[in-house]
Write a structure and sequence with these properties.
- By secondary structure, this protein is mostly beta strands.
- It contains no helices and 11 strands.
- The protein has strands at residues 3-7, 10-12, 18-25, 34-39, 46-51, 58-60, 68-73, 78-83, 92-100, 103-106, 110-114.
Length: 116
Protein backbone atom coordinates (compact mmCIF):
# COMPACT_ATOMS: atom_id res chain seq x y z
CA UNK A 1 0.00 0.00 0.00
CA UNK A 2 1.35 3.38 -1.01
CA UNK A 3 1.96 5.66 1.92
CA UNK A 4 3.22 9.25 1.82
CA UNK A 5 3.84 11.23 4.97
CA UNK A 6 4.86 14.88 4.90
CA UNK A 7 6.50 16.82 7.69
CA UNK A 8 8.46 19.99 8.25
CA UNK A 9 5.77 22.61 7.91
CA UNK A 10 5.20 25.36 10.43
CA UNK A 11 5.03 29.07 11.05
CA UNK A 12 7.77 31.14 9.49
CA UNK A 13 8.34 34.86 9.03
CA UNK A 14 8.41 36.45 5.58
CA UNK A 15 11.79 35.92 4.00
CA UNK A 16 12.33 32.77 6.01
CA UNK A 17 12.98 29.20 4.97
CA UNK A 18 11.63 25.72 5.62
CA UNK A 19 12.52 22.22 4.53
CA UNK A 20 9.64 19.88 3.88
CA UNK A 21 10.05 16.12 3.92
CA UNK A 22 7.96 13.34 2.40
CA UNK A 23 8.56 9.79 3.58
CA UNK A 24 7.43 7.28 0.97
CA UNK A 25 6.65 3.59 1.32
CA UNK A 26 4.67 0.83 -0.36
CA UNK A 27 6.23 1.18 -3.81
CA UNK A 28 9.65 1.13 -5.44
CA UNK A 29 10.51 4.75 -4.81
CA UNK A 30 13.50 4.97 -7.15
CA UNK A 31 11.35 4.02 -10.15
CA UNK A 32 8.81 6.84 -9.93
CA UNK A 33 8.70 10.54 -10.57
CA UNK A 34 7.50 12.55 -7.61
CA UNK A 35 5.70 15.85 -7.22
CA UNK A 36 4.94 18.52 -4.67
CA UNK A 37 1.59 20.28 -4.72
CA UNK A 38 0.23 23.07 -2.59
CA UNK A 39 -3.28 24.13 -1.70
CA UNK A 40 -3.64 27.83 -0.99
CA UNK A 41 -6.92 28.84 0.69
CA UNK A 42 -9.52 29.77 -1.89
CA UNK A 43 -7.51 28.43 -4.80
CA UNK A 44 -7.17 25.16 -6.67
CA UNK A 45 -4.39 22.78 -5.77
CA UNK A 46 -1.26 23.80 -7.64
CA UNK A 47 1.55 21.62 -8.94
CA UNK A 48 4.70 23.40 -7.86
CA UNK A 49 7.58 20.99 -8.41
CA UNK A 50 8.35 17.70 -10.14
CA UNK A 51 11.43 15.51 -9.97
CA UNK A 52 12.12 12.50 -12.13
CA UNK A 53 12.95 9.10 -10.68
CA UNK A 54 16.71 9.67 -10.97
CA UNK A 55 16.66 13.13 -9.44
CA UNK A 56 18.34 14.62 -12.48
CA UNK A 57 15.34 16.43 -13.96
CA UNK A 58 13.45 19.02 -11.96
CA UNK A 59 10.61 21.24 -13.11
CA UNK A 60 9.08 24.12 -11.19
CA UNK A 61 6.01 26.28 -11.40
CA UNK A 62 6.80 29.86 -12.23
CA UNK A 63 5.46 30.96 -8.85
CA UNK A 64 8.21 29.12 -6.97
CA UNK A 65 11.06 28.94 -9.44
CA UNK A 66 14.37 30.20 -8.03
CA UNK A 67 12.99 30.03 -4.48
CA UNK A 68 12.09 26.38 -3.96
CA UNK A 69 14.23 23.30 -4.59
CA UNK A 70 12.93 19.76 -4.95
CA UNK A 71 15.25 16.85 -4.25
CA UNK A 72 15.15 13.20 -3.31
CA UNK A 73 17.17 10.51 -1.60
CA UNK A 74 16.43 7.20 -3.27
CA UNK A 75 18.41 5.29 -0.66
CA UNK A 76 16.11 6.58 2.08
CA UNK A 77 12.85 6.76 0.08
CA UNK A 78 12.60 10.43 0.92
CA UNK A 79 11.43 13.44 -1.04
CA UNK A 80 12.30 16.98 -0.02
CA UNK A 81 11.25 20.52 -0.78
CA UNK A 82 13.46 23.39 0.32
CA UNK A 83 11.50 26.62 0.57
CA UNK A 84 13.34 29.94 0.72
CA UNK A 85 12.45 33.62 0.60
CA UNK A 86 8.92 32.81 1.69
CA UNK A 87 6.10 35.28 1.38
CA UNK A 88 2.57 35.33 2.75
CA UNK A 89 1.38 34.09 -0.64
CA UNK A 90 3.18 30.80 0.02
CA UNK A 91 0.88 30.01 2.94
CA UNK A 92 -0.94 26.77 2.35
CA UNK A 93 -0.91 23.01 2.68
CA UNK A 94 1.94 21.25 0.90
CA UNK A 95 1.53 17.65 -0.23
CA UNK A 96 3.69 15.13 -2.01
CA UNK A 97 2.31 13.00 -4.80
CA UNK A 98 3.01 9.88 -6.80
CA UNK A 99 1.17 8.25 -9.65
CA UNK A 100 1.59 4.53 -9.07
CA UNK A 101 0.01 1.88 -11.23
CA UNK A 102 -2.34 4.41 -12.80
CA UNK A 103 -3.63 5.62 -9.44
CA UNK A 104 -2.84 8.96 -7.78
CA UNK A 105 -1.65 9.18 -4.21
CA UNK A 106 -1.19 12.22 -1.97
CA UNK A 107 0.02 12.48 1.55
CA UNK A 108 -2.04 14.18 4.22
CA UNK A 109 -0.12 17.41 3.72
CA UNK A 110 1.85 19.74 5.95
CA UNK A 111 0.77 23.29 6.73
CA UNK A 112 3.09 26.17 5.93
CA UNK A 113 2.13 29.55 7.35
CA UNK A 114 4.13 32.62 6.47
CA UNK A 115 3.36 35.50 8.79
CA UNK A 116 5.07 38.11 10.88
Amino acid sequence: QVHLVESGGGLVQPGGSLRLTCAASGFTFNEYNMRWYRQIPGEERELIATIDYTGAIRVYARSVRDRFTISRDNDKNMLYLQLTNLTSQDTGVYSCFVRWQRSDYWGQGTQVTVSS
